[in-house]
Predict the structure of B12-binding domain-containing radical SAM protein.
Amino acid sequence: MQKPIQYVGGELNAQVKPWDDVAVHWALMYPDAYEVGLPNQGLMILYEVLNERPDALAERTYAVWPDLAGLMREHGVGQFTVDAHRPVREFDLLGVSFATELGYTNLLEALDLAGVPLHAVDRDESHPVVVAGGHAAFNPEPVSDFVDCAVLGDGEQVVGDMTDVVAAWKEQGRPGGRVELLARLARVDGVYVPRFYAVTYGADGTIAEVLRTRDDVPARVGKRTVMDLDEWPYPKQPLVPLAESVHERMSVEIFRGCTRGCRFCQAGMITRPVRERTITGIGSMVDAGLKATGYEEVGLLSLSSADHSEIGQLAKELADRYEGTNTGLSLPSTRVDAFNVTLANELSRNGRRSGLTFAPEGGSERIRRVINKTVSKEDLVRTVTTAYANGWRQVKLYFMCGLPTETDEDVLEIAELAVEVIRAGREASGSKDIRCTVSIGGFVPKPHTPFQWASQASAETIDHRLKVLREAINADRRIGRSIGLRYHDGKPGVIEGLLSRGDRRVGRVIERVWRDGGHFDGWSEHFSYDRWQTAAAEELAAFGLDLDWFTTRERTEHEVLPWDHLDSGLDKEWLWDDWQDAISEDEVGDCRWTGCYDCGVCPTMGTDIQIGPTGRSLLPLTVVR
């Protein structure tokens, strides 16, 4: 088998607790390969939170590569955890964190390998409760046949509440069986149990209504929001992988949520409001994490890290603290309008000077107004030129293709921008030895965003625009050879679109694809568009629907959307108004620094924006040698 080390376990900071010493057993799964799943912060946090409880344990499992899956079936070995190599089937709960909908087929593969019935209705009290989490859980309808529960929002507190429910049910002798356990879980804030909600459809194929089938579960399920992140300084002891992983660093989430209002960004919408960690809280986490791991790079993570109200002070004081060591700091990407050389120099002072990443998202200023990414061409060129002039040689620019109202001309401006960046950079640096990488992702409309009503561009449209962009970049080889172009074709995005905005009828498509051999759909070497297209055509025909109905069709204002009964805190009317503003190319400011725009989150969730500056400092300084 390939990379057997990924199944061994025993990583630094991994935990194995005695099975019989606790009442509740969680298996936590990231439905992708070990190298992608192990660095995942969400899973790592819940692993620690649960294992700190004296009455619970948590172990980890990841998607199994096809070579080992075949051997496991041949020898009758079930899906197991990497910590104690226990069968997943023996756990009370199986929590699965979905960062992308393309992991759904891996869930089915894991359930089948574990010997757990695929369909939730076929399970009894001997089977684990299958719990979906992560951003994709804000529309779990496509996998509602396969999961017992979905958790909306932050998981730190809700997993504790669920553990309490399961422990009490087991101690009482499992009254009412599995149905009673699920009913109790459905009454936990933030937990949605699909089996207690019935969906009916109209003659045109749209949803007529979604009604609960029990009076003791909520008619509408709201998300959970953790306030005061300093009270949740996890992970305290981050896991260090045994095998190479996608992120070789220790990461600290410096704030959660975003109010920039980028209309394409589901993460920014569903994680509102902004909640900052204090500078002292971050400093403590960095110190503890480095001591626990031995890493030499610290990632300061959030959706827009340079927007932390004390980011300049934080970067300087962390750089001071680790002066003379090999400990470097990094931001995942930097907003064009938040970049300054002082910040960048502090981040790279003790570590390597790696490339800078900026995300203009749209090629033209017009399309950036549509998506509410307020940055001008002049700002971008000036910022990148400043970076080149101060010694950086590599800049990565991230854009999307297929955005609402987009034309070929909008995409061609990406090429013009890249060419101008190289020309200005050569002039500023006095060197031709500079690079600009243009990375293109296909736009996928997501639930709980202003673009949830939008028509998705077809794969043919995406591929055509990528072709003309490639030709434009290569038109002048003297410049073009300094510009790298990275992109994926449009087909995986179409399937992601089907799964992100699908309803319960799409579950048949997912199951058909898995039965036909589909898994690891996020990996180009395993993804088969033909397999998905065939499954969609044959399974959706029974409902008079097709793939285009779920993807390229624009929704109307009053259509009942599959996730309308799941509350992210955002008013649907506000989202619609913002969609109309997008079509009119009207921009909206950031409510951290301007007035409230009445999106609905703060009053609905009983929360508020939490930002500094706090006036605190990491001083008195203790320099680490």
In short: The first strand starts at residue 24 and ends at 30. The mean pLDDT is 94. The longest helix spans residues 408-429. The two ends are 43 Å apart (CA to CA).
